[in-house]
Amino acid sequence: MSAWWAQLSLFLGVLFNGAIMTAIVTAGSFIVSMVLGVVSAACATSRSPLLRAISSVYVEVFRAVPILTQLFIIYFGLGSIGIKLNPIPAALAGFGLNGGANLTEVFRGGIGAIDRGQTEAALSIGMTPLMALRYIVLPQAFRIVLPSLTNFAIGLLKDTSLASAVAAPELSFNANALVDRTFRSPEIYILLALFYLAMSLPLSALARNLERRSSRGHRA
Amino acid sequence: MPSWSLIAAWLPQLVVAAGGTLKLAVFSYVLGVVAGLLIAVAEMSEHRLLSSTCRVYIEFVRATPILTQLFLIYFVLPSVGIALPEFTAAVIALGLHYAAYMAETYRSGIAGVPRGQREAAQAIGMTRTETLRYIVLPQSVRIIVPPMVNSAISLLKDTSVASLIAAPELMLRANDLTSEYYMPMPLYILAGIFYFVMAYPLSLWARRLERLARRGYGAVHSVSR
Amino acid sequence: MAATGAPSLIPPPDSSPASPAPLVRIRGLHKRFGPLEVLRGIDLDVQGGEKVSIIGPSGSGKTTLLRCINYIGRPSEGHVTVSGSLIGEKLAGDHFVALDDRSLARQRAGIGMVFQRFNLFPHLTVLRNIELGPVKVLKIAPAEARERSFGLLQKVGLADKAAAYPEMLSGGQQQRVAIARALAMQPKLMLFDEATSALDPELVGEVLAVIAQLAAEGMTMVLVTHEMQFAEDISDRVIFMDHGKIVEQGPPDQIFHTPVHERTRAFLRAVLDRRAKPL
């Protein structure tokens, strides 16, 4: 009986470490995605055709290719031409670039939902279009897209499981390593699913909460 | 930079593999559409146990990565006697995964038809079935189609995950060629191009459908330019 | 938009002491929205300290004209000069090029605009709405900006609402805050775009009172308005526009009581018929 318990503690310990790494990769990728998404959305809504084109190409390419392929290009591809990245930075780059493309659409929608009069009022008191975006439009757009951002974070959490394919020591990778060592795949993969549930369900609850609040009043 | 003859040697293999990707995607999508419909109907049933089971299923699928679900189907099912080959496991995993999302799409499609439509249909004496068939379902189609096309695009991209259990598709072939030729950069970029060629037209179509859905029936039936 | 034309389209500033240079000078203004021509050639001068009201039916181009003055709307043809500077464009050799964002923003800082739908920033408090411009655009020290903004709030009678958010205020209160926000930039010119048209009737008076006070203090104003009595009371000059052209302009007495053009008469008849007002 204690041997079973010892094995369970081993599994839980290894998976817990993996979960920490998953959380780190998710959080890091989220930040990178946000930055890229805001910049790309600003380009997409700018008056410069060049900036709009750059954003458009970025979004179309990164949304039409699977994340796994993007990860492999960054980790294996760049590695073969001399830019050797460790698994975690590669994952952050891959998920960040991919996420930025997805968030571009989210932020564009948010920006587009802001009444034009807001921008005009900002311009009329002497702000440049960039200042208007920064102080007036984006803060309001952010509130509108907050529910979508939480949903995006949940998707990101699940996507990080692919980082296991480039040997990042996150949850799925650790689970696979355990299975290789102990051959007890049913128990381990079921535990794996439970760990993901434990991480994503609270986020979903948060998302639903935010969705309810933002539909009540725009200053929720 | 690989030589042109090398690329020429790769291309036919990649094309075949891309065909495998499409085959996987189509089978999974059909499974998803059908299973999703069954789940949506079951969830609306008055049988409490049935509808809560569906609800739990949908929440589980949406809360765990598709890779985990794939592992469960491919590696764990054998221990209860169901050993599936790679392709089948991938179809089932992808299909059942997207079935959960499709069930939600169907639900929001039906719910998206204004209540007044139902009331008007009842007022002219239609039964519930007739209301559903002639009034609600046709209008819900307009709401449902764009997300369904977006799901198809996501599904197409998610077939790449099946490479991790060695199902025959594009990424697996790219992996094999990489271990043979040791040139991951051009190979994975080629793979990316193949995916782009398959997915981009779908995304253009999805956007067109979204625009039409927004503009209403008048736009759909008018002569298109 | 960057019209290629001889520099002589801009008349040299009139520097004779008898007639000082106008604060606003508009020459040959045209504005097209695709095939639709909304402004068909406007020439207009506004002197410093003058209060000009623009009246006319909807679609006449009044709002479009107003928005061209601070370049919120871009003219298709023609030029606008405020305080001697070309707005939105500059001379490069022998033709005109668009002004860069920063310079245009600086020009706009000197012109205040009040919008029909207020356009207050909902995510900021009333006080923050007013001091944002001075702090971020004029780079005034925050403490001083706050003090000045508070003073402006008092001036429009809303000192007690400083910490409130716009959505908690009535329409009339919001518009008064909007006026304070525009005044915070210390503009030389104020543009009012149907400032009371979106207000419930009982709230119109409080806003007109603020505008009237501003007028009495000598602010140069151009107002697009439907409030005929108000226009008559505070204007030095009234302009009647129709179909993108200035049909008639003159002192309020002339326009409202002895209009020359038949179209002016027809418009006033239609408008004033609904108000039992002896002429």
What does this structure look like?
Chain A is an all-alpha fold and 220 residues long. Chain B is built from nine helices and no strands. Chain B has a single domain, classed as MetI-like (MetI-like fold). Chain C has a six-stranded mixed sheet, sandwiched between helices. Chain C has a four-stranded antiparallel sheet with strand order 2-1-4-5, covered by helices on one side. The N terminus of chain C is likely disordered. Chains in contact: A-B, A-C. At the A-B interface, helix 2, helix 3, helix 6, helix 7 and helix 8 of A face helix 2, helix 3, helix 6, helix 7 and helix 8 of B.
CA-atom Rg of chain C in angstroms = 19 Å
Number of helices of chain A: 8
Largest sheet of chain C: 6 strands, mixed
Describe the global form of chain C: globular
Order of helices and strands of chain A: HHHHHHHH
Q: Determine the CATH superfamily of chain A.
A: MetI-like
Strand content of chain C: 15-25%
According to DSSP, the number of beta strands of chain C is: 12
Based on secondary structure, the structural category of chain A is mainly alpha
Average pLDDT confidence of chain A is: 91
Oligomer: heterotrimer
Backbone CA Rg of chain A:
21 Å
Instruction: Give the rounded overall mean pLDDT of chain C.
Output: 89
What is the strand and helix layout of this fold?
The complex is a heterotrimer of chains A (220), B (225) and C (279).
Chain A: H1 2-44, H2 49-64, H3 67-80, H4 87-112, H5 116-124, H6 129-159, H7 171-182, H8 185-216
Helix pairs in contact in A: 1-2, 1-4, 1-6, 1-7, 1-8, 2-4, 3-4, 4-6, 5-6, 6-8, 7-8
Chain B: H1 4-43, H2 48-63, H3 66-76, H4 86-111, H5 115-123, H6 128-158, H7 170-181, H8 184-215, H9 217-221
Helix pairs in contact in B: 1-2, 1-4, 1-7, 1-8, 2-4, 3-4, 4-6, 5-6, 6-8, 7-8
Chain C: E1 24-33, E2 36-46, E3 51-55, H1 62-69, E4 77-82, E5 85-86, E6 89-92, E7 95-98, H2 101-109, E8 111-114, H3 126-136, H4 142-155, H5 171-183, E9 189-193, H6 201-216, E10 220-224, H7 228-234, E11 237-242, E12 245-250, H8 252-257, H9 262-272
Parallel strand pairs in C: 3-10, 3-11, 8-9, 9-10
Antiparallel strand pairs in C: 1-2, 1-4, 4-5, 6-7, 11-12
